[in-house]
TrEMBL record:
Membrane topology: Multi-pass membrane protein
Transmembrane segments: 46-64, 84-108, 115-133, 139-161, 168-191, 197-222, 298-321, 327-347, 409-430, 469-489
UniProt lineage: Eukaryota, Fungi, Dikarya, Ascomycota, Pezizomycotina
Extent of Low complexity compositional bias: 1-12
Name by which UniProt lists this protein: Sulfatase N-terminal domain-containing protein
Length: 1051
């Protein structure tokens, strides 16, 4: 039927005509011209602003969407979301866009794009602001809302380019969108790293959207006041009325949806799945590369690079399709390229770039053929399919994969692409059999063929048959897919909230325990509970703390450096130089309020929090455990105390060390307790702390029992004074009679046999000033060995009590849902306190002589007070150099055992040789709990950022490391001793007279004893680390205290 014959149609037929039919029958509803297919009729002097609208419209929306992929890992951590919820964010805009593409196209054509697109652009602007606000306030649902609003606003200005220019216009828009996507993906991580906040990436598109809206308004004014009337776009509704296809103004029927030609509805069967899988691949490709061991920044660069080819080739392919046809052949080619890309990235060791080349080629032609086949269904088809929950399904599949991997996702994606390829082949057949080869022909071939057609309603090329049953079935399929996708999402989130409820946490800290002092690390001391814990968990061999106890505890509670958290130096040391440290942030001597403490965060998240043991993070009630987030607590506030609660009657007029006194230093739930009347008569520290923690758990209220718990069990064993029950000491009689050097060699041999240290590791020489074993008399050897026996007994008792806790949790059914960490707070204590001048000045020797009995037979009893010295400590820290107080490995490399059943099914779960720190425990707990880490403020106060890194991806097998060996740097400083590490290289400075007084460089993976100083051989690496030290010094607000001159001097 030609245009002339249409005027003879009956009123009933005219009334039924729709915009779609008008377009299909050749009626130009967009412009007044004799040849609606001609691109050249409208001068470019009038087209340029419309072209600028096309260029500017997708920028803001595309920028926001493209930043999601590189920031996926960051968003999961910052917003506390899982992969399925990330899928909701990434597909929210497409959901709207694809549910209403036909309706949106009709409205745009029917009433014209001018005011419609202004409204749409305004909605996009509002959506970008809402999305940015969602990031600002760390609420992922607000971010989703912003994307939904942006989805409502997406529209195109293809009307200005006619049918023949449609592919070129789409190709141009696609190129612009991919350019923006490339830039956004490239800069997302650098912006995050450079500014310290990832949210700026989401505020940038707001300004682009303002620009786009301004251009859109300018376009409307330009059209109304500058463009001649004959070139102005006439809305389809007005055109249809003028042509008398509508009998009266304003009539519109939604039944038009069911009069679509059935061939149009091939779109959902192919493009829904094809683009859905492609969108899921594009969104997650950065995360997949990240999981292959690349840094977050490199992964973002590589994933974003797949946009380069579409930028260059999209307009070219668009022109090629316009010129040469064969649309469905392109449709068939795209899934083959996607299958190759998915297979390479997911199941080979080839560099990700190879896979991304294929995905780039697929991206060039993925949606374009169908988009230009069916111009009335244009609506951001790059994301069609994700709207139907494909990103959500992919996220749920990833959540259901061990370690959050992509194996299931990629297998499903490959299956989808295979189905799409099959359908594309069938469409080629349909085109040849039923559509008159219209999708294969070029435009000129089609025009020539149409000119020969006599009966347009009978020829396959022009015949458009509607099949309502097919339409209903297709829309039913779409609704079913939507419902299924969201059912998967709701099911996965419900499972996380019920059957996989939030885990409990049990953090056990030993005090001054050496690296090899337990069975899992090669010790002869009986530790069956820790053996059991290690058998079911992972032993870390490169776990690091601060060089001393309170700085480590500050790092544990804060997830950041001790110089930030308030213990830049030991409080006891700062008390002797109070004026020098006064007023310096980070040197308050207690866990300051510039950080959010782990129990505070978890308490706010609905956790029952309990603590029993040594606090050492503040002596005042406002700094006590109950003030920092513990619902229930009993604590020894200072750093040490008598293990039997014994305290002699000191003369109040004489000066004695504070650590020998306990009055007023015990606190329960914020209340000072009397140790003499409120502690049990059979008190032994390790037993008591265990009893009280179990009591807190047993006496939870019904409401508290429904909550997950965070339990902190901080033993004071085996910190001096070395004291233990007599019958346990006897268990180790004679075991150490050959001295510390022989023990050291036995321990090293056992560490090697267990695979905990390299076979060729050379141990550092013994540190300290005490005489060698062979130079001691027989009685001196016996006394020294007895001290080690007492130490061993303390470790033994601690293990027995750890076993009690594990048994209780197993009996209550809570153990397998509890993340357990056992660690030491620093290296073994090797100091000879009597040799330290400051100790002598505060009456240590007088107190030992007048109030304690350190005779051979009394060693280990309540009224004894001693330590075991540097040689026994060196046996425990071997092969490392030094011990507690040193920034060499012996002072900061500590035992750490982690148990959590959720991590057991991967290769990282037995022995870990990768670098980790005590700062990592806080972010690990938060990620496991699904708790969002605080931003810049917490409980109304500004806080410092977390420096530690979560272990979840590493221990679950999703990542090969915790710290990037090329980028991540960790530093230490205490008492003027310094260390800075990146990868396996560590620079260390130990001042005179304990060290060389110069920076030294070691490869601690090959040389754990720090024997081979590489400072002169690898000067460039040392210089890089010294620059990193300056950065670390500045970031943590550190200052150097010159003890000799009693002044403050910056580095």
């Amino acid at each position: 039927m030609d245009l002339a014959s249409k005027s003879k149609a009956s009123p009933a037929e005219s009334e039924k005509s729709s915009p779609i039919q008008l377009a299909e029958e050749g009626l130009d509803i967009s412009q007044e011209t004799d040849d609606p297919s001609s691109l050249g009729k409208i001068p470019w002097s009038y087209k340029w602003l419309a072209l600028l609208c096309i260029v500017s419209l997708p920028i803001g929306h595309t920028w926001t969407g493209s930043a999601l992929g590189p920031l996926k890992n960051t968003l999961r951590e910052e917003l506390g979301i899982n992969n399925a919820q990330f899928g909701v964010i990434s597909s929210a805009d497409a959901f709207v866009n694809t549910v209403f593409p036909i309706i949106g196209g009709l409205i745009l054509d029917w009433w014209g794009p001018n005011l419609v697109t202004i409204c749409c652009t305004s909605v996009i602007l509002v959506g970008s602001v809402v999305a940015a606000v969602g990031v600002q306030i760390n609420l992922w649902r607000v971010l989703v809302s912003g994307h939904v609003l942006m989805g409502f606003g997406i529209a195109f200005f293809y009307h200005w380019f006619g049918v023949s220019g449609l592919a070129f216009a789409f190709g141009l828009e696609n190129a612009i969108a991919n350019t923006v996507s490339l830039v956004s993906g490239m800069v997302a991580i650098p912006i995050k790293n450079g500014t310290g906040w990832y949210g700026w990436t989401f505020w940038i598109p707001v300004f682009f959207c303002v620009f786009s809206l301004a251009v859109n308004i300018a376009y409307v004014c330009f059209e109304r006041f500058v463009i001649p009337a004959r070139f102005r776009l006439t809305p389809g509704r007005e055109k249809a009325i003028a042509e008398k296809h509508l009998s009266k103004k304003g009539k519109f029927s939604w039944n038009v949806l069911f009069s679509l030609p059935w061939a149009y509805l091939m779109l959902p069967a192919t493009q829904l799945l094809q683009s859905g899988a492609a969108g899921g691949f594009s969104t997650s490709s950065a995360d997949m590369i990240f999981m292959k061991g690349f840094s977050e920044e490199v992964a973002g660069y590589l994933a974003t690079a797949q946009k380069i080819l579409p930028i260059v080739l999209s307009p070219v392919v668009g022109l090629a399709i316009d010129r040469y046809g064969h649309r469905f052949h392109y449709v068939a080619t795209a899934p083959i390229l996607w299958i190759i890309a998915c297979s390479i990235l997911g199941f080979t060791d080839l560099h990700p770039t190879v896979a991304l080349v294929f995905s780039s080629l697929a991206g060039v032609i993925n949606a374009m053929p169908l988009q230009i086949c069916i111009p009335l269904l244009v609506a951001d088809q790059a994301k069609i399919g994700t709207a139907f929950g494909m990103d959500v399904v992919f996220g749920a599949l990833q959540d259901d994969t061990d370690g959050g991997g992509y194996e299931k996702v990629l297998l499903v994606a490959i299956g989808i692409k295979a189905w799409a390829f099959f359908l594309a082949l069938s469409y080629i057949f349909v085109d040849f059999r039923f559509l008159g080869k219209g999708m294969t022909m070029t435009l000129k071939q089609r025009e020539a063929r149409e000119a020969e057609i006599v009966d347009r309603d009978a020829d396959p090329l022009t015949k458009r048959t509607s099949k309502p049953w097919f339409t209903i079935m297709t829309f039913g399929l779409l609704i079913a897919i939507i419902a299924s996708a969201w059912a998967v999402f709701l099911s996965s989130t419900n499972n996380m909230a019920s059957s996989a409820k939030r885990p409990n946490f049990l953090i056990i800290v030993a005090d001054d325990l050496g690296f090899s002092d337990t069975g899992p690390y090669g010790s002869e001391i009986s530790t069956p509970a820790l053996d059991r814990l290690a058998k079911d968990g992972v032993r870390m061999t490169d776990f690091h703390t601060a060089p001393a106890c309170s700085p480590t505890r500050a790092m544990l509670m804060s997830g950041t450096d001790n110089h930030v958290a308030g213990l830049g130096q030991m409080a006891e040391f700062m008390a002797t130089n109070a004026q020098a440290f006064k007023g310096h942030p980070g040197y308050e001597g207690y866990l300051n309020f510039r950080i959010a403490a782990l129990p505070e965060i978890l308490q706010d998240a609905g956790y029952f929090t309990a603590m029993s043991g040594k606090w050492h993070l503040g002596l005042k009630p406002e700094h006590s455990p109950s003030a920092r987030g513990f619902t229930k607590s009993v604590a020894l506030l200072p750093g040490a105390g008598n293990h039997f609660n014994y305290e002699p009657d000191f003369d109040p007029d004489l000066n004695y060390p504070s650590f020998m006194k306990s009055e007023g230093l015990w606190m329960e739930d914020g209340r000072v307790i009397d140790r003499k009347s409120e502690l049990p008569h059979d008190f032994y520290s390790t037993n008591y702390f265990t009893n009280r923690l179990l009591q807190f758990l047993d006496e939870r209220t019904p409401v508290e029992a429904e909550q997950p718990f965070f339990a902190y069990l901080a033993y004071t064993a085996p910190h001096w004074p070395l004291q233990a029950p007599k019958h346990i000491i006897e268990k180790y009689r004679g075991m150490y009679s050959d001295g510390p050097d022989e023990l050291r060699m036995r321990r090293i041999k056992q560490l090697r046999s267990l695979g905990l240290i390299p076979e060729d590791a050379i141990p550092a020489p013994v540190s300290g000033t005490s005489p060698e074993w062979k130079h001691l008399s027989a009685s001196e050897q016996a006394e020294s060995a007895r001290k080690m026996e007492v130490y061993a007994a303390m470790v033994d008792v601690m293990d027995q009590n750890i076993g009690r806790v594990l048994d209780r949790l197993e009996a209550t059914g809570e153990l397998d849902n509890t993340f357990v960490v056992f660690m030491s707070d620093n290296g073994a204590e090797g100091a000879l306190l009597e040799a330290i001048p400051i100790m002598r000045s505060i009456g240590l020797l007088e107190a030992l002589q007048n109030h304690f009995d350190n005779s051979m037979d009394n060693l280990g009893n309540a009224n004894s007070f001693f330590w075991y010295g540097p040689r026994w400590a060196s046996a425990a820290t071997a092969p490392s150099r030094g011990f507690k107080g040193f920034t060499t490995e012996g002072g900061i490399r500590c035992p750490c055992i982690v148990r959590y059943p959720g991590f057991q099914s991967n290769g990282n779960y037995q022995i870990s040789h990768d670098f980790t720190t005590v700062m990592d425990i806080l972010p690990t707990c938060l990620e496991l709990a699904g708790v969002q880490a605080p931003g810049k403020t917490f409980r109304g106060r500004e806080i410092a950022p977390i420096r530690g890194k979560s272990w979840v991806s590493y221990l679950s097998g999703a990542k090969p490391w915790v710290y990037d060996a090329n980028l991540d740097v960790t530093g230490w400083e205490l008492f003027g001793l310094r260390g800075i590490r990146r990868g396996n290289f560590k620079a260390v400075l130990v001042p005179l007279p304990r060290g060389s007084g110069e920076w030294e460089l070691y490869n601690v993976a090959r040389d754990p004893g720090e024997l081979k100083n590489l400072a002169h051989k690898k000067k460039s690496i040392l210089n890089e680390l010294l620059m990193e030290w300056e950065n670390y010094f500045a970031e943590t607000g550190m200052f150097e205290f010159d003890i000799k001159n009693r002044n403050v001097r910056g580095v």
